[in-house]
Amino acid sequence: MPELVFFSGTMDCGKSTLALQIEHNRSTRGLQGMIYTKNDRAGEGKLSSRLGLVTDSVEAGEGFDFYAHIVGHISAGGRADYVIADEAQFLAPEQVDQLARIVDDLELDVFAFGITTDFRTRLFPGSQRLVELADRIEVLQVEALCWCGARATHNARTVGGQMVVEGAQVVVGDVNQPETVVGYEVLCRRHHRRRLTAAAARAAALSPDVLPLDPVDEAANASSVGV
């Protein structure tokens, strides 16, 4: 039976790489898929991985109708055996409904990939709708790591290396960006709650834990203990 499958995880856990792997595996078996994405780091009409892999895709912008596009493609003599939708967190809830309709009415597998929550730990509308409608939810097993080495579970937005918790929900960026620009970093829950990014942790490590005693105070302390 065809399924709507939602592959979720934090940034930097290999979602786009898996999307490209699914496309490769199925295309080598003679199947033809329709690939969609939105706001990919490589630009409009691209699906890219941080490993350097990239392929062409259809940009699913505001008001884009997945179901109408697939029906139009097939009606024009095209072929579609499955659908891949990357960066699905950016989709509107009604667009996720269209993906579900493709599964139910056209009997095609739909593989959607996206992060679940934003930099404020709030659900993206597209991800929320996928959780509500998906036949299956798969959490990716390639664990992104926080700077402390623990499993990263949260996405943080940074400006100048410092975590920010206000602003628009969607600001396109990437991990490992220069500290002078808006970027993103994956953190464990503890450090996300403390707003402690890698840059902030480095700054804290450079600060002395204990301030040195004033020489006068040091001499007084020595006299008091009979040294």
From TrEMBL:
Listed GO MF terms: ATP binding; thymidine kinase activity
InterPro entries cross-referenced by the UniProt entry: P-loop_NTPase (IPR027417), Thymidine_kinase (IPR001267)
Active site: 87
EC number(s) recorded for this UniProt protein: 2.7.1.21
Catalytic activity line of the entry: thymidine + ATP = dTMP + ADP + H(+)
Keyword terms, alphabetized: ATP-binding, DNA synthesis, Kinase, Nucleotide-binding, Transferase
Gene Ontology BP terms: DNA biosynthetic process; thymidine metabolic process
Organism domain of life: Bacteria
GO CC term (a single one): cytosol
Bilayer-crossing regions: none
Residues reported to bind substrate: 170-173, 184
Similarity comment: Belongs to the thymidine kinase family.
Protein known as: Thymidine kinase
